[in-house]
Specification:
Blueprint lengths: L1 H20 E18 L8 E8 L6 E11 L2 E12 L4 E2 L9 E8 L2 E9 L1 H9 L30 E9 L6 E8 L12 E10 L2 E11 L11 E12 L4 E11 L8 E12 L4 E12 L9 E11 L4 E12 L22 E12 L1
Antiparallel strand pairs: 1-2, 1-3, 1-18, 3-4, 4-5, 4-6, 6-7, 7-8, 8-9, 9-10, 10-11, 11-12, 12-13, 13-14, 14-15, 15-16, 16-17, 17-18
Amino acid sequence: MKKSLIALAVLSAVAGAAQAQSSVTVYGLVDMGLQRQDIGATKTSASATTTALDSGNQSGSRLGFKGSEDLGGGLKANFKLEMGINADEGKSAQGGRTFGRQAYVGLAGDFGAVNFGRQYTPVFVAIDSFDPFSTGMSSGTAGSGTSTLGAGAYFDHGNVRMDNSVTFSTNDVGGFTANLAYGMGEVAGDNKAKRYMGLSAAYTGGPLFVEAAYSNRQDTVLTATTLDNAVKSTLIAGTYDFSVVKLHGAYQSIKDDGVAATALKRDVWSFGVTVPVSAAGSVVANYIDSRNKNSFLTDMNAKQYAIGYTHSLSKRTNLYTSYSQAKNDANINLGSADSGPTFHPVANGATVKLFNVGIRHMF
């Protein structure tokens, strides 16, 4: 009997140690709010207004599973499976993918971390780091980030996420971190088609944060004369926290290899602030200016002003509201709502106003 008790105690200790070496966490976020989009009339289109109960205004609603296992010697195995949810309709986001937000597995240790699967691009992570709206609400930095003018946001992300990707991220060394990413296009007979390459480097020291990022993605046939067209973006961004106000700024150059008459060539500037007004609330605002640099194209500039407010009810729940106004030149159409139901398309030259108010809960 005594030996049995000793054996049981040993087995319990071993099982407890094994359990302590690995962990799985279930987490999520539900964001719901009212959103109104007003599109002004142009010479070729009438005005249009859409009001909707929309999921994911401030942050995309999601359900996720993440975990790690201690392999010994400072090495860990990590994984994350995260699905996007359109909570207003109870449907999967990201085009109905099961785990459309993120899905990867990898190893981490003193060398950094290597992950394999569907992941965020380094440029998108950099944009999210400097944007006072964190790419949500009415910031103008969210969106598809596609190369087609007028079909996405002001900043080019090199696509928000990469399929079939391998990433390497360093550990923090004196405030410096870096990320490398390669996304395989997996197009038969053409290793360049739909391929993505990106990198970023950042420094955090006290109130200062600065980051630089680069992306190069290959589109499939974009024009009749250009195959595997490369869209390239270079981003420099930073923030400085004075406590009473936090300043945000960024510059991005976006170019592609298309024929000169239609080539994408733009400069994007952004300036913003975060102003704490209480222990629970902050006002955020920014200005974005997207300028066409292709001399063959005219009337293709756009700008957006945005202001918002967030108020924490607890560590996991907050209220938010924001308003933005986008002004487009005659041949461009930026500034449309990016999530939720199908909003009315924005015509070239339209002024677009967005307003939302909602609640976000994290668990």
